[in-house]
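Lay summary. Proteins are chains of building blocks that fold into shapes, and those shapes determine what they do. In this project we predict the shape from the chain. Here is one chain we studied, written as its sequence of building blocks.
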Amino acid sequence: MSDTLLIAGVDEAGRGPLAGPVIAAAVILDPTYAIPGLADSKQLSAARREQLAAEIRAHTLAWALGRADVAEIDRINILQASLLAMRRAVESLTIAPNQVLVDGKHCPPGLACPCQAIIKGDATVSAISAASILAKVARDAELCELHERYPTYGFARHKGYPTLAHREALHRFGPCPEHRRSFAPVTAVLHAAAASE
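And here is the predicted shape, written in a compact code that computers can read:
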């Protein structure tokens, strides 16, 4: 294996939502095992993502998750939190990669190996596609758990994204501890509440 170029694909899920963590995944595919159907997680049904995630976890050389919580997102901004989650995912791999390929425009700082950012990499690079699937499945599962704790917001349905139903619930009930205070729709609700006091 020492002569093999080990490439880790990395992607995140959860940059756009108003609530919950951002979760990243890093995946080193097994070159001897093909996983048909890898694609950008947003183009797959939830059921298909679950099927592929199980196969990815079972048949890759290594995979790992990294996350940044709401407090970190609010403190350092969502881009930096996403890059932090990606770095944590790479550093959690049980095999050190020789190269990292990241979806998007930015590489996480501080990696121990070379990194290349690839725009739309989740649709064109199999390892990044696999990472996008694992990240999306893990984050969706976490938002379903949040729904159990805060059922009034409908997290299980919209996964924290700013849908009309979510924004209406936010205005009606105010933010919960898992809402990102640095995001404009949440900030607006907090300001409105403060102004009415």
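What the prediction tells us: The chain has two domains: 7-148, 150-192.
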